[in-house]
Design goal:
With about 300 residues, this protein is mainly β. It contains 1 helix and 19 strands.
Amino acid sequence: MKKIIIALLVVSGFTMSCKKDEEVDPTGAVVPQLTFKVDFDETLPRLGNLGQDVSVGTGNAAQHPNMQSVSLHYIELATNASTPLGTGQILYKGIETNAGGTAAVDIEQAKFAGSGETFISVDLASLAPGTYEWIRVSLTYQKYEIDYYVNQPPLTDMNLTGRLASYVGFNNYITSHVIKDSTVVVNANKLQGYWAFEWGIEHLGILYGGVNKGDGAGVTVVNPISSTSPVPVGSCVVTGQLAIPLVITGNETSGKSIMLAFSINNSFEWSEVNVDGKFEPSVGEVVVDMGLRGLHPYIE
């Protein structure tokens, strides 16, 4: 009996591996998929809104966040740098709601993915034949860990790690959200730039901690083709050029996978009160920019 169980497990594992970048329809025919994955890389260039290299702002400091997951609201492939937003091949759009009074991303129904994970797969046949050079991705949410510093008695000279929830979508309807251990109830729309930071530590048998929140933090939205194909202010539609263009003939028999590699090169930026390069919310240092610093997609 044990041998039979082991054999079944082996067969099951083999079947799952064959489903990479493909699905099977009700007739048993293979349906090639176009799969989008996400990755975060601090070694990629740190870019500004126009796709130019930029340094950290005067009076500010920054760090590479330890990314946990992101949520995307929109994915579009464009044939060239002059393709207007919305006229390319729109392959994904998340669910929206008017529960908060105006149209907003429904965070409760949003999809999430961590580093190296698949965010979504679509039928490759739904993509019109052609050559695609650019990808547009609208970001909605980032969850990451950051280092912070506390030097307020009784917590003195402590380097710690906290969790931050960063909402960068154009508008976000949030019922409640869990940062790490704390649940924040909102039940309202939150515009781009809302954030909540949870910190905590046990010291000499006493638990210290809390949640800091803020609205209106800056969000860099990188678009290297803004002169030929701009995006609306507040949309958080990040634009990136494929390392090698995606060519679709319409006769594909196997799937394809695109890695959406985002730059987190000093993407968490704050204003300094104590000029020491350490994030210190306890002395009034606040987030000034949470935008990812570029999209560098490539075909795997």
